[in-house]
Amino acid sequence: MQINWNEFSPIASFAGGLLIGLSAALLLLLNGRVAGISGIIRQAIFASNKEMTWRLSFILGMLISPSIYFVLFPYAPIQIHDNVTLLMIAGVLVGYGTSMGAGCTSGHGICGLSRLSLRSLTAVVLFMSAAVLTTFLVKHF
Amino acid sequence: MLMLIISLFCGLIFGLGLLISGMANPQKVLGFLDITGLWDPSLILVMAGAILAALLPFQWAKNQSRSLLGQTMQLPDKTQIDRPLIVGSLLFGIGWGLAGICPGPAIVLLGLKQINAIYFVLAMLAGMWIFQILQKRK
Question: Which contacts qualify for B39-42: CB closer than 8 Å, 24 or more apart?
Fold first, then answer.
C-alpha cells in the first residue's frame, strides 16, 4: 500500500466531515429527522405525504450549496466519469441498492454509526468492501 | 415553516461539508477506494469528523420522544440484519465503486451543473423506482 501524499487533505476532509456531522445533528435535534440522503431523495419523490416538503427543502439546500461554496472558496474543477453507460449502470445500482438496504453512506454510515447500530455497521462494512473490490476490478480488467 | 427552514439550512451545510471534504469529487472518492494503488486516505477523516460531531447528539436523541422543537423523534427501530440489508448494501457498494458517486454527492454534482450528473441522478431515481414497483408486486 502506498499513500498518495499529494492528494491527502486531512484538514479539509476533517473540517468537511464536522460540517456533515453538524448538519445531521441539527436535523435530528431540532426536527427529529435522520439525515439519510438516499431515504430523503426516495421519499421526497415516491412517498406522497406531508413528510415530503421538509425532504424537498433539504434537497434544495444541497442543490444551492455549490453556489455558496464558490463564493467562499476558489474554483476547483470536479470531474465525473465521461462514460455515460457506466454512469447509468452505477446510478441504477446506487438507487436500487440503497432502497433495498435502506440507507447509504450518510444514513448507515454517519447516522447509523453515531447511533451505534450493529445493523448499520454491517451495511457500512458490506458497501465499503463491495466498493473497494469494484474499484480494484475496474482498474485491473 | 420553521422545520422547512431548518431542513434547507441543514441541506446547505451538508452540501458544503461534502464539497469541502472532497466527498463530492468522484475522483477523490475513487482515490480513496483504490487501496491497492496510490491510496488517498482523506475520506476516513470525513467519517471521523462527521461521527465526532454527531455521536453525542444521536446518543442523546435515542432516549427522547420529541425533538427540541417538539417534533416526533423519528429514529430507525430496525435492528435485524436481514437479506435485503446485505444484498442492498452490496449492490450499492458496486455502484459506488463504479462511479465514485453516492446519493448525497450526486445531488451536489447536479447543483454544480455537471451534465453527466443528470444521467447518474436519473438512473438513480430509476433504480429507486424499480425497487418501489417490485415491492408493490409482492
Answer: B39/A1, B39/A2, B39/A3, B39/A4, B40/A3, B40/A4, B40/A7, B40/A8, B41/A3, B41/A8, B42/A7, B42/A8, B42/A9, B42/A10, B42/A12, B42/A13
